From TrEMBL:
InterPro entries for this protein: AP_endonuc_1 (IPR004808), Endo/exonu/phosph_ase_sf (IPR036691), Endo/exonuclease/phosphatase (IPR005135), ExoIII-like (IPR037493)
Gene: xth
Sequence ranges assigned to domain Endonuclease/exonuclease/phosphatase in this UniProt record: 6-256
EC number, UniProt record: 3.1.11.2
Keywords: Hydrolase, Magnesium, Metal-binding
Keyword tRNA-binding found: no
Domain of life: Bacteria
Organism, as annotated: Prauserella endophytica
Protein name: Exodeoxyribonuclease III
Molecular function terms, GO-annotated: double-stranded DNA 3'-5' DNA exonuclease activity
Length: 269
């Protein structure tokens, strides 16, 4: 079996003090992807930077304390790539990929936006540049006999079943018609598969992010914005996708929950 987990940690050093370290020590995952690390590798403790038994790839943001993604793999990667070739985002700490035996796995932190601001314009530029790269990545992987798995915080709820209060968010970033249409293109022209929806096409949810404000977590008023997106061959091998939602509010170590997928795969261990 192959097991892959993804989680937006909302600051890795802070999460480590609140429960991430214990979760990571107990995980059975072969690959763990983190987003919003908010630290470069040199600023992390050794057990976060290079845990025993793991190979790591870190992509920090050039602006200190912002963004940041990383990958942990129990299998040594053949190569690592930071960024996807778009100059504006090469040092933004938003994308890193590992080339593993038969698999390219990537950790993605797509920008969040705010309608009518430069942040939304940045998000739209990222989306325009990233979709062609996904197409290119799939083509190159197929040519080399690899599957692709892009996981992380995509900051878009694709459909009404992907957030609790969809009516109240139709004009907000993360659920705009053009963002949802773009996600549809990822699953259409780019040819990728949303693993959660492959196994659970009806919904609603399960949600992966809940605001810290109000009673969002207690009322399960969340958004599904953390995705595991795979090429079709790998998607056919997916046997489960589980959102590891904390049992209680005070047991949360991030405003996101880890999402873990398992695959029927003859994986080296």
């Amino acid at each position: 079996m192959l097991t892959v987990s993804t989680v937006n940690v909302n600051g890795l050093r802070a999460a480590a003090k609140k429960g991430f370290t214990e979760w990571f020590a107990a995980t059975g995952a072969d690959v763990v992807a983190c987003q919003e690390v908010r630290a470069d590798a040199e600023s992390l403790s050794a057990r976060l930077r290079e845990p025993d038994g793991w190979h790591t790839a870190h992509a920090a943001c050039s602006i200190k304390g912002r963004n940041g993604v990383c990958l942990y793999s129990r299998v040594e990667p053949e190569s690592v790539r930071v960024g996807f070739g778009e100059a504006e985002f090469e040092e933004s700490g938003r994308y890193v990929e590992m080339h593993l035996p038969g698999l390219v796995v990537a950790s993605l932190y797509l920008p969040s936006g705010d309608v009518g601001t430069e942040r939304q314009e940045e998000k739209e530029r990222f989306m325009r540049a990233f979709l062609p790269y996904l197409v290119e990545l799939r083509g190159k992987a197929e040519a080399s006999g690899r599957e692709v798995l892009v996981v992380g915080d995509w900051n878009i709820a694709h459909a009404e079943i992907d957030l609790k209060n969809w009516r109240g968010n139709r004009n907000n970033s993360g659920f705009l018609p053009e963002e949802r249409e773009w996600m549809g293109r990822v699953f259409g022209e780019a040819g990728y598969v949303d693993l959660q929806r492959k196994l659970d096409p009806e919904g609603p949810g399960p949600y992966t992010w809940w605001s810290y404000r109000g009673k969002a977590f207690d009322n399960d008023s969340g958004w599904r914005i953390d995705y595991l997106v795979a090429t079709p061959g790998l998607a056919q091998r997916c046997t489960s996708v589980v959102v590891e939602r904390a049992e209680t509010y005070d047991q949360r170590w991030s405003d996101h929950a880890p999402v873990t997928a398992t695959f029927d795969w003859d994986w080296p261990s």
